[in-house]
Amino acid sequence: MTYKNFNLIKKIRYLFFNFIYGKIYKITSFKKTDKIKSKKISFLNKYNYFFYKICNGRLYSNTVSDTAFIINNKLVKEPSFQFREKENYKVVNSRIKDNLVLKVGTPNFKKKINGDVLSLLTGGAGKNNYWHWIFDVLPRIGIFEKSGEKNIDFYLLPAITKIYQKESITLLSILEKKILDGEKLKHIECKNLFAVDHPCVFNNNPSKAVENIPSWILKWLRKKYLSKKISKSQYSKKIFISRDKDSNLDRRKIINSEQVENFFKKKGFSILTLGEHSFSEQISAFKNAKLIAGLHGAGFANMVFSDKKTNIIEIKSKDNGKAIMNLAKKCGHKYLEILEKNEKSNLKHQNAHIKVNIDKLEKIKLLN
User: What end-to-end distance do the CA atoms of the chain give, in Å?
Assistant: First the structure.
Protein backbone atom coordinates (compact mmCIF):
# COMPACT_ATOMS: atom_id res chain seq x y z
CA MET A 1 0.00 0.00 0.00
CA THR A 2 1.39 3.39 -0.95
CA TYR A 3 1.58 6.31 1.49
CA LYS A 4 -0.94 8.20 -0.64
CA ASN A 5 -3.46 5.33 -0.50
CA PHE A 6 -2.92 4.94 3.24
CA ASN A 7 -3.75 8.61 3.83
CA LEU A 8 -6.84 8.31 1.64
CA ILE A 9 -8.10 5.36 3.70
CA LYS A 10 -7.55 7.32 6.90
CA LYS A 11 -9.53 10.28 5.55
CA ILE A 12 -12.41 8.01 4.53
CA ARG A 13 -12.36 6.43 7.98
CA TYR A 14 -12.51 9.82 9.69
CA LEU A 15 -15.41 10.92 7.48
CA PHE A 16 -17.25 7.68 8.23
CA PHE A 17 -17.04 8.08 12.02
CA ASN A 18 -17.81 11.79 11.84
CA PHE A 19 -20.96 10.88 9.95
CA ILE A 20 -21.94 8.38 12.68
CA TYR A 21 -21.05 10.32 15.81
CA GLY A 22 -20.75 13.89 14.58
CA LYS A 23 -17.81 16.24 14.46
CA ILE A 24 -16.24 17.54 17.67
CA TYR A 25 -16.59 21.17 16.78
CA LYS A 26 -16.14 23.22 19.93
CA ILE A 27 -14.24 23.45 23.22
CA THR A 28 -16.18 23.97 26.43
CA SER A 29 -15.49 24.17 30.17
CA PHE A 30 -17.06 22.36 33.08
CA LYS A 31 -18.06 25.81 34.34
CA LYS A 32 -20.29 26.40 31.31
CA THR A 33 -22.67 23.46 31.58
CA ASP A 34 -24.93 22.05 34.26
CA LYS A 35 -24.26 18.52 32.95
CA ILE A 36 -20.85 18.52 34.61
CA LYS A 37 -20.55 18.67 38.38
CA SER A 38 -17.19 19.51 39.89
CA LYS A 39 -15.69 19.49 43.33
CA LYS A 40 -12.40 20.76 44.69
CA ILE A 41 -10.44 18.17 46.68
CA SER A 42 -7.43 18.95 48.86
CA PHE A 43 -4.73 16.90 50.58
CA LEU A 44 -2.61 18.19 53.45
CA ASN A 45 -3.93 21.72 52.74
CA LYS A 46 -1.35 21.85 49.95
CA TYR A 47 -2.31 19.68 47.00
CA ASN A 48 -5.52 20.70 45.24
CA TYR A 49 -7.44 18.83 42.55
CA PHE A 50 -10.74 18.96 40.73
CA PHE A 51 -13.09 16.01 40.54
CA TYR A 52 -15.49 15.90 37.57
CA LYS A 53 -18.79 14.07 37.14
CA ILE A 54 -19.97 14.20 33.51
CA CYS A 55 -23.57 13.14 32.92
CA ASN A 56 -24.03 11.02 29.76
CA GLY A 57 -20.49 11.84 28.73
CA ARG A 58 -18.26 10.31 26.10
CA LEU A 59 -14.56 9.53 26.31
CA TYR A 60 -12.20 9.01 23.40
CA SER A 61 -8.52 8.14 23.72
CA ASN A 62 -5.74 7.08 21.39
CA THR A 63 -4.19 5.46 24.52
CA VAL A 64 -0.86 7.18 23.87
CA SER A 65 -0.98 10.96 24.05
CA ASP A 66 -4.57 12.22 23.91
CA THR A 67 -7.72 11.63 25.92
CA ALA A 68 -10.86 13.66 25.27
CA PHE A 69 -13.86 14.02 27.56
CA ILE A 70 -16.86 14.98 25.43
CA ILE A 71 -20.36 16.24 26.12
CA ASN A 72 -22.84 17.17 23.41
CA ASN A 73 -20.00 16.87 20.87
CA LYS A 74 -18.00 19.52 22.69
CA LEU A 75 -14.52 18.84 24.04
CA VAL A 76 -14.36 19.49 27.79
CA LYS A 77 -11.16 21.39 28.43
CA GLU A 78 -10.20 20.64 32.04
CA PRO A 79 -10.11 16.81 32.32
CA SER A 80 -8.91 16.26 28.72
CA PHE A 81 -5.19 16.12 27.93
CA GLN A 82 -2.90 16.09 24.91
CA PHE A 83 0.72 15.29 25.71
CA ARG A 84 3.40 16.34 23.23
CA GLU A 85 7.14 15.63 23.25
CA LYS A 86 9.42 18.63 23.07
CA GLU A 87 13.19 18.97 22.87
CA ASN A 88 15.38 16.60 24.92
CA TYR A 89 12.51 14.12 25.26
CA LYS A 90 10.61 16.48 27.58
CA VAL A 91 6.83 16.03 27.60
CA VAL A 92 4.30 18.80 28.16
CA ASN A 93 0.51 18.96 28.21
CA SER A 94 -0.14 20.98 25.09
CA ARG A 95 -2.94 23.45 24.34
CA ILE A 96 -6.47 22.06 24.36
CA LYS A 97 -6.91 23.08 20.71
CA ASP A 98 -4.23 20.51 19.84
CA ASN A 99 -6.37 17.61 21.09
CA LEU A 100 -6.68 15.10 18.26
CA VAL A 101 -10.49 14.85 18.36
CA LEU A 102 -10.76 18.39 17.00
CA LYS A 103 -8.90 17.21 13.91
CA VAL A 104 -10.05 13.63 13.38
CA GLY A 105 -13.16 13.21 15.52
CA THR A 106 -13.69 9.91 17.37
CA PRO A 107 -12.64 7.27 14.79
CA ASN A 108 -13.56 4.10 16.71
CA PHE A 109 -16.87 2.41 17.29
CA LYS A 110 -18.46 3.57 20.53
CA LYS A 111 -19.14 1.15 23.36
CA LYS A 112 -22.10 2.00 25.58
CA ILE A 113 -21.21 1.11 29.18
CA ASN A 114 -24.17 0.30 31.38
CA GLY A 115 -23.10 2.06 34.56
CA ASP A 116 -20.80 4.71 36.00
CA VAL A 117 -17.13 4.77 34.93
CA LEU A 118 -14.08 6.27 36.65
CA SER A 119 -11.32 7.05 34.17
CA LEU A 120 -7.79 6.29 35.35
CA LEU A 121 -6.28 7.14 31.96
CA THR A 122 -3.09 9.14 32.19
CA GLY A 123 -1.34 9.07 28.81
CA GLY A 124 0.99 6.55 27.19
CA ALA A 125 3.44 6.21 30.07
CA GLY A 126 0.77 4.73 32.30
CA LYS A 127 0.27 1.79 29.94
CA ASN A 128 3.64 0.15 30.38
CA ASN A 129 5.79 2.11 32.83
CA TYR A 130 5.74 0.97 36.44
CA TRP A 131 6.66 4.38 37.90
CA HIS A 132 3.82 6.14 36.12
CA TRP A 133 1.38 3.39 37.03
CA ILE A 134 2.25 3.76 40.72
CA PHE A 135 2.24 7.56 40.84
CA ASP A 136 -0.04 8.66 37.97
CA VAL A 137 -2.71 5.95 37.78
CA LEU A 138 -3.33 4.48 41.24
CA PRO A 139 -3.51 7.81 43.16
CA ARG A 140 -6.48 8.86 41.01
CA ILE A 141 -8.44 6.36 43.08
CA GLY A 142 -7.26 8.17 46.20
CA ILE A 143 -8.54 11.48 44.84
CA PHE A 144 -11.85 9.88 43.90
CA GLU A 145 -12.24 8.42 47.39
CA LYS A 146 -12.39 11.95 48.82
CA SER A 147 -15.10 13.02 46.38
CA GLY A 148 -17.89 11.46 48.42
CA GLU A 149 -19.14 9.42 45.44
CA LYS A 150 -19.85 5.75 46.08
CA ASN A 151 -20.37 2.50 44.21
CA ILE A 152 -18.41 2.95 41.00
CA ASP A 153 -19.48 0.33 38.49
CA PHE A 154 -16.33 0.31 36.36
CA TYR A 155 -12.71 1.50 36.40
CA LEU A 156 -11.19 2.34 33.01
CA LEU A 157 -7.48 1.46 33.11
CA PRO A 158 -4.76 2.48 30.63
CA ALA A 159 -3.96 -1.22 30.11
CA ILE A 160 -4.05 -4.56 31.93
CA THR A 161 -1.27 -6.42 30.11
CA LYS A 162 1.39 -6.27 32.83
CA ILE A 163 1.50 -8.59 35.83
CA TYR A 164 1.31 -5.74 38.32
CA GLN A 165 -1.58 -3.83 36.73
CA LYS A 166 -4.58 -5.99 37.44
CA GLU A 167 -3.16 -7.18 40.78
CA SER A 168 -2.58 -3.66 42.12
CA ILE A 169 -6.23 -2.85 41.38
CA THR A 170 -7.73 -6.02 42.82
CA LEU A 171 -5.66 -5.58 46.00
CA LEU A 172 -7.76 -2.45 46.56
CA SER A 173 -10.82 -4.75 46.85
CA ILE A 174 -11.98 -3.81 43.35
CA LEU A 175 -13.61 -6.78 41.64
CA GLU A 176 -12.05 -7.95 38.40
CA LYS A 177 -15.42 -7.67 36.63
CA LYS A 178 -15.28 -3.91 37.25
CA ILE A 179 -12.02 -3.47 35.32
CA LEU A 180 -12.19 -2.05 31.79
CA ASP A 181 -9.20 -2.24 29.43
CA GLY A 182 -8.53 1.20 27.93
CA GLU A 183 -6.53 -0.30 25.08
CA LYS A 184 -9.60 -2.16 23.87
CA LEU A 185 -12.18 0.47 24.80
CA LYS A 186 -10.93 3.65 23.15
CA HIS A 187 -14.37 5.19 22.73
CA ILE A 188 -17.03 4.84 25.41
CA GLU A 189 -20.23 6.46 26.60
CA CYS A 190 -21.83 5.92 30.00
CA LYS A 191 -24.40 7.20 32.47
CA ASN A 192 -21.86 9.09 34.58
CA LEU A 193 -18.25 9.54 33.57
CA PHE A 194 -15.88 10.46 36.39
CA ALA A 195 -12.44 12.04 36.06
CA VAL A 196 -9.89 13.71 38.32
CA ASP A 197 -6.94 16.00 37.74
CA HIS A 198 -3.49 14.49 37.27
CA PRO A 199 -2.16 13.49 40.71
CA CYS A 200 1.33 14.93 40.14
CA VAL A 201 1.14 17.59 37.42
CA PHE A 202 0.39 21.08 38.69
CA ASN A 203 2.25 23.28 36.23
CA ASN A 204 1.47 21.66 32.88
CA ASN A 205 4.88 20.01 32.83
CA PRO A 206 4.69 16.22 33.31
CA SER A 207 8.44 15.76 32.78
CA LYS A 208 9.18 18.07 35.70
CA ALA A 209 6.40 16.73 37.90
CA VAL A 210 7.95 13.25 37.95
CA GLU A 211 10.70 14.69 40.18
CA ASN A 212 8.31 15.91 42.87
CA ILE A 213 5.74 13.29 43.87
CA PRO A 214 3.20 14.77 46.33
CA SER A 215 3.75 13.43 49.83
CA TRP A 216 0.08 12.47 50.29
CA ILE A 217 0.49 9.89 47.52
CA LEU A 218 3.30 8.17 49.39
CA LYS A 219 1.17 7.97 52.55
CA TRP A 220 -1.86 6.74 50.61
CA LEU A 221 0.10 3.97 48.84
CA ARG A 222 1.62 2.75 52.10
CA LYS A 223 -1.73 2.77 53.86
CA LYS A 224 -3.48 0.90 51.04
CA TYR A 225 -0.88 -1.77 50.34
CA LEU A 226 1.16 -2.29 53.50
CA SER A 227 -2.03 -3.15 55.34
CA LYS A 228 -2.19 -6.33 53.26
CA LYS A 229 -0.67 -9.55 54.55
CA ILE A 230 2.78 -9.83 53.01
CA SER A 231 5.44 -12.48 53.52
CA LYS A 232 8.94 -11.10 53.61
CA SER A 233 11.07 -13.96 54.92
CA GLN A 234 12.06 -15.15 51.42
CA TYR A 235 13.66 -11.85 50.42
CA SER A 236 17.18 -10.62 50.97
CA LYS A 237 18.10 -7.60 53.05
CA LYS A 238 20.22 -6.40 50.13
CA ILE A 239 18.81 -6.31 46.58
CA PHE A 240 20.16 -5.15 43.25
CA ILE A 241 17.55 -4.20 40.63
CA SER A 242 18.47 -5.69 37.25
CA ARG A 243 17.06 -4.13 34.06
CA ASP A 244 18.65 -6.62 31.65
CA LYS A 245 15.46 -8.64 31.14
CA ASP A 246 12.94 -6.02 32.15
CA SER A 247 13.20 -3.47 29.39
CA ASN A 248 11.24 -4.05 26.18
CA LEU A 249 13.41 -1.50 24.43
CA ASP A 250 17.16 -1.62 24.08
CA ARG A 251 17.79 1.52 26.03
CA ARG A 252 19.34 2.64 29.31
CA LYS A 253 21.37 -0.44 30.11
CA ILE A 254 24.60 -1.11 31.99
CA ILE A 255 26.83 -2.36 29.19
CA ASN A 256 29.04 -4.28 31.65
CA SER A 257 26.03 -5.53 33.60
CA GLU A 258 27.40 -9.06 34.10
CA GLN A 259 30.49 -7.65 35.77
CA VAL A 260 28.42 -5.27 37.89
CA GLU A 261 25.95 -7.93 39.00
CA ASN A 262 28.78 -10.31 39.90
CA PHE A 263 30.26 -7.55 42.06
CA PHE A 264 26.99 -7.08 43.92
CA LYS A 265 26.51 -10.84 44.31
CA LYS A 266 29.90 -11.06 46.03
CA LYS A 267 28.72 -8.34 48.37
CA GLY A 268 25.72 -10.43 49.42
CA PHE A 269 23.08 -8.89 47.17
CA SER A 270 20.22 -10.79 45.55
CA ILE A 271 19.72 -9.85 41.89
CA LEU A 272 16.06 -9.02 41.28
CA THR A 273 14.39 -8.71 37.87
CA LEU A 274 11.21 -6.97 38.94
CA GLY A 275 9.21 -7.84 35.82
CA GLU A 276 9.37 -11.49 36.84
CA HIS A 277 7.63 -10.79 40.15
CA SER A 278 4.05 -9.99 41.09
CA PHE A 279 3.08 -6.66 42.60
CA SER A 280 2.78 -8.24 46.06
CA GLU A 281 6.20 -9.82 45.72
CA GLN A 282 7.76 -6.49 44.80
CA ILE A 283 6.17 -4.84 47.83
CA SER A 284 7.49 -7.62 50.05
CA ALA A 285 11.01 -7.44 48.62
CA PHE A 286 11.30 -3.70 49.15
CA LYS A 287 9.63 -3.82 52.56
CA ASN A 288 12.22 -6.34 53.72
CA ALA A 289 15.29 -4.73 52.14
CA LYS A 290 17.70 -2.51 54.06
CA LEU A 291 19.99 -1.76 51.10
CA ILE A 292 18.69 -1.31 47.53
CA ALA A 293 20.88 -0.61 44.49
CA GLY A 294 20.35 -0.43 40.76
CA LEU A 295 20.41 1.57 37.58
CA HIS A 296 18.06 4.56 37.34
CA GLY A 297 14.63 3.15 36.47
CA ALA A 298 10.96 2.80 37.33
CA GLY A 299 11.54 -0.07 39.76
CA PHE A 300 12.78 2.37 42.38
CA ALA A 301 9.15 3.47 42.80
CA ASN A 302 8.85 0.50 45.16
CA MET A 303 11.00 2.30 47.74
CA VAL A 304 7.72 3.89 48.87
CA PHE A 305 7.04 0.52 50.54
CA SER A 306 10.46 0.33 52.26
CA ASP A 307 11.04 1.18 55.90
CA LYS A 308 12.47 4.60 56.71
CA LYS A 309 16.26 4.97 56.59
CA THR A 310 16.61 2.21 53.99
CA ASN A 311 19.82 2.80 52.03
CA ILE A 312 19.25 3.59 48.34
CA ILE A 313 22.11 3.50 45.81
CA GLU A 314 21.21 4.81 42.37
CA ILE A 315 23.55 4.28 39.40
CA LYS A 316 22.85 7.01 36.86
CA SER A 317 24.09 9.59 34.41
CA LYS A 318 23.68 13.34 34.78
CA ASP A 319 20.77 13.17 32.29
CA ASN A 320 18.66 10.93 34.53
CA GLY A 321 17.37 13.75 36.69
CA LYS A 322 16.52 13.86 40.39
CA ALA A 323 13.30 11.85 40.56
CA ILE A 324 14.73 8.94 42.52
CA MET A 325 16.85 11.11 44.80
CA ASN A 326 13.86 13.31 45.64
CA LEU A 327 11.58 10.32 46.22
CA ALA A 328 14.16 8.72 48.52
CA LYS A 329 14.35 11.90 50.59
CA LYS A 330 10.56 12.19 50.83
CA CYS A 331 10.39 8.58 52.00
CA GLY A 332 13.02 9.26 54.68
CA HIS A 333 15.66 7.02 53.12
CA LYS A 334 19.44 7.42 52.94
CA TYR A 335 20.44 8.15 49.36
CA LEU A 336 23.71 7.78 47.47
CA GLU A 337 24.26 8.27 43.74
CA ILE A 338 26.92 6.73 41.53
CA LEU A 339 27.36 9.05 38.59
CA GLU A 340 28.69 7.70 35.28
CA LYS A 341 29.02 9.16 31.79
CA ASN A 342 26.74 8.18 28.91
CA GLU A 343 28.36 5.88 26.41
CA LYS A 344 28.56 7.24 22.87
CA SER A 345 25.78 5.79 20.71
CA ASN A 346 22.60 6.76 18.88
CA LEU A 347 20.79 6.77 22.22
CA LYS A 348 20.63 10.19 23.80
CA HIS A 349 19.98 11.77 27.17
CA GLN A 350 18.24 9.55 29.75
CA ASN A 351 17.99 6.62 27.30
CA ALA A 352 21.73 6.24 26.83
CA HIS A 353 23.71 3.26 28.14
CA ILE A 354 26.41 3.64 30.75
CA LYS A 355 29.47 1.68 31.83
CA VAL A 356 30.03 1.31 35.55
CA ASN A 357 33.49 1.74 37.02
CA ILE A 358 33.97 -1.26 39.34
CA ASP A 359 36.85 0.45 41.12
CA LYS A 360 34.43 3.23 42.05
CA LEU A 361 32.05 0.66 43.57
CA GLU A 362 34.88 -0.90 45.58
CA LYS A 363 35.49 2.40 47.34
CA ILE A 364 31.92 2.78 48.62
CA LYS A 365 31.97 2.08 52.37
CA LEU A 366 28.32 1.05 52.37
CA LEU A 367 29.17 -1.90 50.13
CA ASN A 368 32.07 -3.16 52.22
Answer: 61
